[in-house]
Structure formats: C-alpha cells, structure tokens
Amino acid sequence: MRKSSSTPRAWCRRARLSFEARNDGGMSLIELVVALVLITIVLLAGLTAINFGLTSSNNQRLKVEATNLALTTMEQEEPLAQSLNIGQTTTTQTINTTTFTIVSNISEYDQNGGTLTSACTSNAASQSQQIWQVAVVVSWAHMRGMPPISQSTEVAPGQSTAQDLANAELAVGIEGANGLPLTTPLNFTVTPVATGPPNGPYVPPSGDTSPVGQTPPFNTGANGCGVVTGLSTTGWSYTVTVVGNPGWVSSNEASDSNPAGDPTATDLLALAGQVTRVNPATPLQMAYVSSPTAVVLQPVSYSCAGGNPTPACYLLPLAAGYAAPISTLPVTVANTSLTSGQYTFGGNGTTATTSALLYPYSLYDIWSGDMAQSNPGYSAPASGVPFYNGGAAQTPAPVTLSPPAATTTVPTYDLSVKVTTPCAGNSLVATEQAGSTLPYTLNAGLLNVSTSGMPLGQYLLSSTGGSCPVLKATGTAGLYIWITPTGVYTATAEMTSPYAVGNTLIAANASVQVTE
Questions:
Q1: Is the pTM of this model over 0.85?
Q2: In the chain, how many domains are there?
C-alpha cells in the first residue's frame, strides 16, 4: 500500500521550492509601479524644497538690493530737498537682469502738535516752513506677492544743508471731485513776475534753481500738494499754472477748450521763511475724464408742427433746417456749481465746438450761443418770468446732459434772409447785440437767399461792403432781428423784447427781406 505524501515535512518542502521559484522570477509589475511612485514623491519633495530655497534666496537678494536703492535715493534727496521739485519723480535702475522702479515723493508738512498735516491743507495764506518728508518706494517685476520696499525720513528746515530760511516757497494743492487730495501727480509751472527793482531777468537765490522752464515740470506728488522751494522774495511775485495734464479738467474750467487758458493763480507773494498757499480757502478741484462729449449742432426748422420746435422735431432728419454759418459757433454749458453759473467755449474763431471735456457734475444745461438770450430757458432778470414763452403753451428749455455723455445734440434755429439788388462779392453779417458781440458771416445761398442755423438772441444785420449797407424798409442802414424758438422778429431799432408791439414776426418758411 502506497504512503501519502501529504505529510508536514513534504508540505514544507513544496512551499520552500515555490518561494524560491518566485524569487528567481524577479519583481512583479505592480511592485515596480509602486516603487517608481515612491521615488517620484521623494524627488518632487526634494526639488520643491530646493526651488523654495532658491526662490527665497533670490527674493531676499532682491529685497536687499531694493532696500539699498531706497536708502541711497533717500539719502541723496534728503539734503537736496530745498532745490528739488517737491512732488513725485520716477526713475529706473537695472541690477544684473532685474529692473527696479524707484518712486520718490518729497512732501511738505505742518507740525500740529504730534501730528504732521500737508502744507496745502491749512486755510492760512502762509505758514512758517516746517518739515519735509522724503519717501521712496521701490518695486520690480514678478514680485510674487511681496510688498514694495518703502523708506522715509523727515527733514526740518534750517537743518544743515537742508534749507535757507531767507528764501520762500509756494504750495499748490489740488483736490479730486470727492474733495480729497489727489493721489495722481498733476503738472504745474511757476513763473516769476517782476514787481520792483531790480526789474531784470529772474535770478534765483544762491544754490537754488530758477523755476522757469523746469523739465520735467513741477507736480503735486502722491498727496495732492506740490511745493516749490528756493524762491526769491525781493521784487518778485509768482504765477502758478496747472498745465500739461491731458484728460484732466478743473471744476471751474468746465471744458479743456477754455479760451481763458489753463487754471491759473496770479500775484502770489513769496515771504522769507514762509510757505505761501495757492487758493487756501478754495483749493483747485480737478477730475480725469476719459473721453470728451461730442457736440452736434442740429438745425431746427420752423416748419415743425405749431411752429414751436421740440427735441422730437429737430432730431428728425426730415425736419432739419439750415447749417450753422461757422464751425466755431459758441456753445454754452451751465451748472449751479460753476463759479459764474455757466461757461461758453468755442466762438473765438479758432476753437471748434465739436467736443467738450466736461467736469463730471451730475447735470448740465447746454445750448448754442453765448448771449443770455441764447438760453431757451432764459428768464427776465426783473420778473423771473420765462422769456421765450411768447404766449405759447410750451415753455422752451435747454438740452440737458450728464457727463461723461458720448454725444449731445444742441439745436440752432433757422434764419433765412432774402437780399434784393445784391452787391457782388459782399456777404451778410449778423452781429450779436449781447454776449461777446460776435459777428457771424451768414451762409451764401441760392437766388440771393442766405440760409443759416443760428443761436437764439438779437442780432444786427449788416454787409461786409461799406458801400453796400443793409437797408431797412425805411431806407436807413441796419436791421435788427431777434431769433426766438417760435420764429424770427424784426425791428427798425434795437429791441428790448421780440414780442413788443411794433415788431414784425416773419412767417414760417419765409425770409427776412433786406436791400443791399
């Protein structure tokens, strides 16, 4: 009888042989994948640690270089504060392959107890020179969330090499539309004006630089306060002009097309050892406007229903009347916040009225022309009664707009003049009887009929040829016309009102008849 091989000893022998066979076959695929994953994790962790160490080391190096630049710049400007443009300057410097941007701000402050306040914030016209602050900020590309490096120091007037207290300073403060100091540097110039001996060319105090022709110009820095130092105090006053700031408009300027020029302060006296403030009680306010408002002059035809033009009428192409006689036709904007209540641009023969950069007040009224009577909503000064109601049910009103509006349409009003026996080569002229008394050379027309789109108001008709005067029906020279929203009135003498007894209303689609 055969013995069974399933004894404990035989089973152990077979297990040992099977284990040895597997060892001879090497690692399985799963074991290999697991090993590679473990090696990758270890390598990534090591590389991450190495990269972090290199990045930290590089960031630390950049911080050290930026700090050195900030300290060097600050130390260079500290003793020169009296001769620098107190405001903001920006420079760059490249070290190895990294370009650093260095922004320096030199500001002047008043010492009020333990608090420093801007030299432009006091309502006093002048203040003893106090303290300068020199602040430098250094940044670079790819900062990876790191803050810029900042360094600042304060310099007291009279400190060694800092300030000659025999000289004077001017402080120019500019606020934004919110009434807070602007953080955007705005440029301005300072011009000396002789007030007495020696009456020659301006000579700056010893060690200082003349403010004339500074390049770059002075600016208001990051706190809306630009200070010009080292000014002569004997025989000179100064004029400050805010200029060279594209897109910026002042609250009292209303438009960058201001014929009066850029915002200016004149007759500023500079006192020794003092900071003279520009407009301390009412600081200049300025705002940035990204795009101007386009002004479209739309003629109004008196053929509109009822003879009383409305926006619905003059916006219809089929109702369009006559073109304006000049491209520089004046346009007026009004807002109660403006110093004079309203502001006119264009009409000076050089400035076109195709666009206006308006300060962002909430609402403007706008109309063509510069006479008080050019406003459709004009009220008689004595009575306050709307001037152009003319007995009509509808009282005209000016167009309104809220800047920054892309486009606004402003009406002009038809004027048709028929000339009998015209002189060759002469033109008709309509001269304002108020406002700037601008003369308008009327458009030439067909069959001796001149057609022009005009602002409201009273005009005197004349001719460009003295030998061919415009004659009234009585045969005397000159004819007065008054353009109203409901038609054109004529008179042989200057009118106080177009609706007065004796004046003549020209019928719709008819012409004023004159002899030249």
A1: no
A2: 2
